[in-house]
Amino acid sequence: MIDLFIIKVGGNVIDNPVLLQAFLEKFATIPGKKILIHGGGKIATRIGDQLGIESKYVDGRRITDAATIDVVTMVYGGLVNKQLVAKLQAAQCNAIGLTGADANIIPATKRPVKEIDYGFVGDVKPDMVQITALKALLEAGLTPVFAPLTHDGSGQMLNTNADTIAASLAIALSASYQVRLIYCFEKKGVLHDPNDDNAVINLINKDIYQQLLADKVLSDGILPKLENAFSAINNGVKEVLIGHADDVLSNTTDTVAGTLIC
Length: 262
Description:
Elements: E1 4-9, H1 12-15, H2 17-28, E2 33-38, H3 41-50, E3 57-58, E4 61-62, H4 66-90, E5 95-98, E6 109-110, E7 122-123, H5 132-139, E8 143-146, E9 149-151, E10 157-159, H6 162-173, E11 179-185, E12 203-204, H7 206-214, H8 223-233, E13 239-244, E14 259-261
Parallel strand pairs: 1-2, 1-11, 2-8, 5-8, 11-13, 12-14
Antiparallel strand pairs: 3-4, 6-7, 9-10, 13-14
């Protein structure tokens, strides 16, 4: 029996007030223990532009220089996180907004410079996650809402991929709970054809995944989610689902939509 749902919401859902409100109203009604992890990259880009701080990317990944880490800390940890918490409170869900620095829950290491200097980007491993305080919040009936930020233990905030944070939390908590990790975005699941929203692959196991990679069926955007999904499955997480934010309620039941990873 699943007794903890860890749900990451991102993509265009965060940027669309109508989609986001619909998602949060459904999320609030999920019974039992749950954790929400959110992104917010487009909002950070917009605020940065307003402040005259140019966003820089390499292969779609944000370069987090000194000015940018200030922007994403403000936007992710402040603006987006607290707006989500306020909306969940309005929906009678007793949420608490967190970053990885709070209660030292998610320490990370600054990504080493190799061919590319990503700046203040944090890499986190599941064995780094400190779950004692997090479990206390869950047992007290609170719903943690995590911004995609970690810290290095020496006072520096770090920008960290939200999908990775979700998988790391799921793995760390799987020793204490039966966890279902759910990735919610604007697609119905993993697609055979990125241009056909109905071409959902309902089940992906390790063998199917390798064949899909060999056939070059998968879009570049879905690959990080699948990598994190299989990392979670291989490290104790009971179930992983990838699906549309509209389906978040059904994906917390036995009647799931989207793509089941096993």
